[in-house]
Amino acid sequence: MRKALVAFVFAILFVPGASAQIPPGSIASNVRVVGYSDVGGRPPFKLSIRQANGRWYLYAGHLWHRGWTILDVTDPAKPTVVNFIPGPENTWTIQMEIGGDKMITALEKIGQGWGGDDAKPNDEGVFVWSLADPVRPKRLGQYKTGGTGTHRNFYSGGRYMHLAAGVPGYDGNIYVIVDISDPAKPVEAGRWWVPGQHAAGGEKGGRDVSLHGPPYVEGSLAYLSYGSAGLVILDIADVAHPKLVGQLSYTPPFLGFIGVHSVLPLAARKIAVVNSEAIREDCQEPLNQASLVDIADPAKPRLVSLFPLPVPPAGAPYKNFCEKGGRFGPHNQNQHHHNPDVERSDKLVYLTYFNAGLRIVDISDAREPREVGWFLPPDPVKRYGPLPKKLVAQSEDVLVDARGYIYLTEKNQGLWIMRYSGPR
Prior knowledge:
Number of strands: 30
CATH superfamily: YVTN repeat-like/Quinoprotein amine dehydrogenase
CATH topology: Methylamine Dehydrogenase, Chain H
CATH class: Mainly Beta
Structural class: mainly beta
Helix content: under 10%
Largest sheet: 5 strands, antiparallel
Low-confidence stretches: 1-19
Mean pLDDT: 94
Distance between the termini: 21 Å
Radius of gyration: 20 Å
Strand content: 35-45%
CATH architecture: 7 Propeller
C-alpha cells in the first residue's frame, strides 16, 4: 500500500537559469520537485521571502558561510542568485526576518564545534536593513546585546523587534524587545527571563534554560519557545513589563535542551503548533516531539495531540530513521510571521525532520494529525561543514510562499523548490 504512494523523482533535468543540476535520487509522496539551486556553492539555512515590483525574492542565511544570499524565484523552476551580501567574519549569520520594507538579520557567536574560532573576534546582535531596493539592502543600524548576540528573532514591521538574545549576566538566551523607530539608534524597550537565568542577580537553576525563539507575537501576547522551560506565553501589552500568562512544560519526558524549539499560534483555531529540535545524532537522546496545544485559555495551555512519527519508505536500507545516521527529529516549521508573502494555512503544517526530510501534516482534526506528504532529498556528495558526522541529508528549514511553492534547505546541499500535490 505505502509503496504505491511513493513517487521516485530521479531528476536528470537541467533547469535553465538555475545554479545547478537537480541532484538525482530524491523520493517523495504527494510532493513534486519544481527547481533546485546550489545557491552559489553556499548551502542555505534560514529563509525569508518578499514580493516586490512583480518579482519574488528569497533571502537566505548560511550555516557554513558568513553573509546572506538573495535569489530571484519569480520563476521557481529557474531560481537565480542575484546578490550575496558578505557578513561579519567568524559570526553566525543564519537567520533573517522581513517586515514591510525592513529586514533584520541575526548575528551570533558561532556555537562550539560548528566552525568558529574562539581566538578570533566575532560580531553580535542584529543588523537592521532597508529593503527599498530588494536586491541591494541598505544597512540602517545595529543593535548589540553585549553578549553572544541573537539566535532566532521575530519582526513583522513597525516599531519593535523581538529577540532571543544572549545578554551578559544571564544563563542562556532571554527575551528582549527592542525599539527600532529610529533604526540607527535601537533602544531596549523590555526584557523577560525564566526565574533562575539571571545568574548575575544571584538567581540559580537556569543553566539548562534558554529561549530558542523566535518569540512569536500575536496581538498582545508573545509565545516563546523556551527550550527546557517549554512553551511560555506572555502578556506584552506593556512592552516594558512583560507578564507571565501561562506555561506548558514538555521536559520530562521529552528531551530537555531544546524541548520547545518553535511555536506557531493559529489564532483563528485557538491552537498552537509546537515542536522540539533533535540534537544528538543517531537518536542518542530522549524522544523529540511535534504537537498541537490548545491555547483557548492562554493561562492554561494544554496538550491536544502528538504528530505521527515519520517512518522510512518501503525498500529503504534502514528499518527506522535512527539507523540512517545524522539527526532524526523535528526542526523548523513554515512560520508566516505575519508576512503576506508566506502561506498562512491553518490546516497544513510543513515541518523539517532532519534525515527524514520534509513532512507535511494535515491538522484539520486537531485530535488526529495525519501525514499527507513527504520529501526525502538524496544524500549530499560534498561536505561543506563538519556536521553531521555521517554525510547524510539533513533538512533544515522550510518556507512556503503565498503561491504555494515550498522551499527546503539542506545542511550540505542546496535549495529545493517543490509543490504539494496531495489532498487539501
